[in-house]
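tokens incoming
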């Protein structure tokens, strides 16, 4: 019985020591667009699938469908809302982002992207137009963690992969309904 009486004296101080250090907060989240069309906003304008190299170009209208691949650490497919047969594709040969025919299998790794945001908000499917559903987001070609999609300084409509951190402010995006 004396041993049982010592348990609170030993474990209670250990509990207070172990709980004195807070757990680290997860710094990123994976947005769920819930099938809603979204706009992609860069710091200098909107990403538009059909306007290239136009300073301040792009539309705040939701012109993209972004779907998850269903995995716990999701990959995303980014399709044109007005023509879902076209998907954003990483052209590794020319190190550029182009629109190509959607893969029939849905497994084309060049059409998959990682998207991580600092803030994610639920309810995209029923949100009013203009509601931000992901902010301070980074988009990377799937499986290429050193490359981030970026916009050109004068042309937010054009996306291209560059080493992450090489152009601060041009590689963060927000998504809105």
């Amino acid at each position: 019985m004396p041993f049982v009486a010592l348990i609170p004296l030993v474990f209670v101080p250990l509990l207070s020591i172990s709980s004195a250090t807070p757990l680290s907060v997860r710094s990123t989240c994976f947005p769920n667009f819930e099938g809603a069309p979204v706009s992609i906003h860069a710091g200098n304008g909107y990403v538009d699938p059909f306007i290239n190299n136009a300073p301040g170009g792009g539309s705040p209208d939701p012109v993209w469908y972004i779907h998850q691949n269903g995995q716990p650490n999701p990959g995303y497919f980014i399709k044109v809302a007005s023509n879902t047969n076209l998907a954003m594709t990483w052209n590794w040969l020319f190190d550029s982002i182009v629109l190509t025919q959607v893969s029939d299998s849905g497994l084309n790794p060049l059409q998959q992207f990682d998207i991580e945001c600092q803030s994610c908000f639920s309810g995209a499917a029923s949100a009013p137009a203009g509601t931000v559903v992901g902010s301070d987001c980074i988009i990377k070609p799937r499986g290429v963690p050193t490359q981030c999609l970026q916009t050109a300084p004068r042309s937010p409509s054009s996306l291209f992969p560059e080493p992450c951190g090489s152009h601060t402010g041009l590689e963060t995006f927000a998504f809105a309904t």
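note: The helical segments are 2-18.
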